[in-house]
């Protein structure tokens, strides 16, 4: 019997959401308990199950015409079993009884034939979350495909009509999705979560021939009423596109570099990659043995805030059921702790930080004003609005990426630039941060304003200024 089949009497819902999410979660909990029992019956000493179900609607238009309308339904069951310290995992999207039985059997068979791993096993039972909270993350959008198409067309039209130099489009899109998830393990822990996310965006092309430039904008939120309007998104995309027309080169040299907020997130991403347990125990990080050391200026701070109202990564427990906690990741410029799961923590002789599956809502503290004030503070230098390529060595921290943005003189934007490369070393870049602005880009679980680095190598034209 398919335990996820909706019961009779439940009202119909749009295809991109769930008629009764609590009933669906109840069914997923029931399924997880059956699978755990089946693993125990086969001799597993520990086991864990993750069950998920997602639904969504995505619409894409381009140049005033509908390109795609896609309704999605996905589900997945992933199971891990332990026989002592031997581990086996298997997954399925097929909920027929024979498929579920085969999934348990496959996971157990794999565990029986793998070697012991001293770090393997569930997180400690004493660390399981007990205070399971609601973060107001469930706001289904009752939008039909016709209305979604109308919004996407309005967004693209607002952008194309903004300036005659915008002659083409890469398209506009509207997306809405709902997800349900249950994690359960043989410690008796059961966690259930539900969330929604909606988006509206457009990418526009200005100019002609070799002088064409592309840019865009999007809005994203858990509740549809918090999205920017279609007209606003279209206009902002157009303004960004037109601003990039007729770019120039700049002379190769060393300059201050201001990462605009949407680009500044990448710097925090490199930090997270360097302090993640997997990279550390493999000694494949430029931040090995860096806990407790000064990485940033003394005023710099990053806080992890897993309990934010409508936070993108708000949760009471991580992917292993471990209770999350508010903590300072960076305090007074000093790295306070790594980002660890129970497995990576055991490999390092440490304890999990409740970050199996990643971090939960990072807030980079500002020490300066808004974007305009950061430009004034920089005076002369480069604003980076787009990064290209993957030129970052995770082991050494050496950094070299293609970039585009704007040249600044006397604290004012002068002209767009592209075809440049910015380079440095991440350790040196972190220590050279001079300011973080209040212009926070809230479209991510990593919340930061623009970040000003005092000096970086910028490769442009060959001549020195």
Structure description:
Residues 252-460 form the Metalloprotease TldD/E C-terminal domain. GO terms for molecular function: metallopeptidase activity. Residues 47-111 form the Metalloprotease TldD/E N-terminal domain. Belongs to the peptidase U62 family. 23% of the residues lie in helices and 35% in strands. With 465 residues, it is α+β, with helices and mostly antiparallel strands. The protein folds into two domains: 21-238, PmbA/TldD superfamily (PmbA/TldD fold); 251-464, no CATH class. It has a six-stranded antiparallel β-sheet. Strands 7-12-13-14-17 form a five-stranded mixed barrel. The longest helix is centred in the first third of the chain and has 21 residues, at 21-41. It is globular and about 70 Å long. The N and C termini lie far apart (74 Å).
Topology of helices and strands:
Blueprint: H1 21-41, E1 46-62, E2 65-83, E3 86-92, H2 97-113, H3 145-160, E4 166-185, E5 190-206, E6 213-221, H4 230-243, E7 251-259, H5 261-275, H6 277-281, E8 302-304, E9 327-331, E10 334-335, H7 342-348, E11 362-364, H8 371-378, E12 381-388, E13 398-409, E14 412-425, H9 426-431, E15 433-436, E16 446-447, E17 451-459, E18 461-464
Parallel strand pairs: 7-12, 7-18, 11-16
Antiparallel strand pairs: 1-2, 1-4, 2-3, 4-5, 5-6, 7-17, 8-9, 8-11, 9-10, 12-13, 13-14, 14-17, 15-17
Distance between the termini: 74 Å
Look up the CATH topology of the largest domain.
PmbA/TldD fold
What are the secondary-structure elements, in order, as H or E? HEEEHHEEEHEHHEEEHEHEEEHEEEE
**Would you identify the regions where 5 or more consecutive residues have pLDDT less than 50?**
1-12
- Oligomeric status of the shown chains? single chain
Q: Measured on Cα atoms, how large is the radius of gyration?
A: 25 Å
């Amino acid at each position: 019997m398919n335990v996820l089949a909706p019961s009779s009497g439940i009202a119909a819902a749009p295809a991109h959401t769930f008629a009764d999410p609590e009933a669906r979660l109840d069914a997923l909990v029931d399924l997880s308990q059956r699978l755990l029992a089946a693993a125990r019956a086969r001799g597993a000493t520990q086991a864990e199950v993750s069950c998920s179900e997602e639904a969504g609607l995505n619409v894409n238009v381009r140049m005033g015409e509908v390109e795609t309308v896609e309704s999605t339904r996905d589900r997945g069951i992933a199971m891990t079993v332990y026989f002592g310290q031997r581990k086996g995992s298997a997954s399925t999207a097929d909920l027929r009884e024979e498929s579920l039985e085969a999934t348990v059997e496959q996971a157990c068979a794999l565990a029986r034939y793998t070697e012991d791993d001293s770090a393997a096993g569930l997180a400690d039972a004493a660390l399981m979350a007990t205070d399971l909270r609601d973060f107001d993350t469930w706001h289904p959008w009752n939008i039909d495909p016709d209305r979604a198409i109308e919004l996407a067309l309005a967004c693209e039209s607002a952008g194309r009509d903004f300036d005659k130099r915008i002659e083409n489009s890469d398209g506009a899109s509207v997306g809405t999705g709902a997800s349900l998830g249950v994690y359960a393990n043989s410690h008796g822990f059961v966690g259930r979560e539900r969330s929604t996310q909606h988006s509206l965006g457009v990418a526009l092309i200005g100019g002609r021939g070799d002088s064409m430039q592309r840019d865009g904008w999007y809005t994203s939120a858990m509740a549809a009423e918090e999205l920017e309007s279609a007209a606003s998104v279209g206009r902002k995309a157009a303004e960004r596109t037109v601003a990039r027309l007729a770019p120039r080169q700049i002379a190769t040299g060393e300059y201050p570099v201001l990462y605009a907020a949407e680009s500044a997130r990448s710097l925090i991403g490199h930090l997270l990659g360097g302090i993640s347990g997997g990279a550390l125990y493999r000694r494949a990080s430029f931040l090995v043995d860096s806990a407790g050391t000064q990485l940033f200026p003394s005023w710099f701070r990053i806080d992890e805030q897993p309990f934010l109202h409508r936070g993108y990564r708000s949760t009471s427990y991580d992917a292993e059921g471990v209770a999350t906690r508010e903590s300072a990741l960076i305090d007074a410029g000093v790295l306070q702790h790594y980002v660890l799961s129970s497995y990576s923590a055991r490999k390092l002789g440490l304890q999990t930080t409740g970050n199996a599956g990643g971090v939960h809502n990072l807030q980079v503290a500002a020490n300066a004003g808004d974007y305009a004030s950061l430009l004034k503070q920089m005076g002369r230098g480069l604003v980076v609005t787009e990064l290209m390529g993957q030129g970052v060595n995770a082991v050494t921290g050496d950094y070299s990426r293609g970039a585009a943005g704007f040249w600044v003189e006397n604290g004012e934007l002068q002209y767009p630039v592209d075809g440049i490369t910015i380079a440095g070393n991440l350790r040196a870049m972190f220590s050279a941060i001079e300011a973080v602005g209040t212009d926070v880009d809230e479209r991510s679980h990593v919340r930061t304003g623009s970040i000003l680095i005092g000096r970086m190598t910028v490769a442009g034209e060959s001549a020195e200024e």
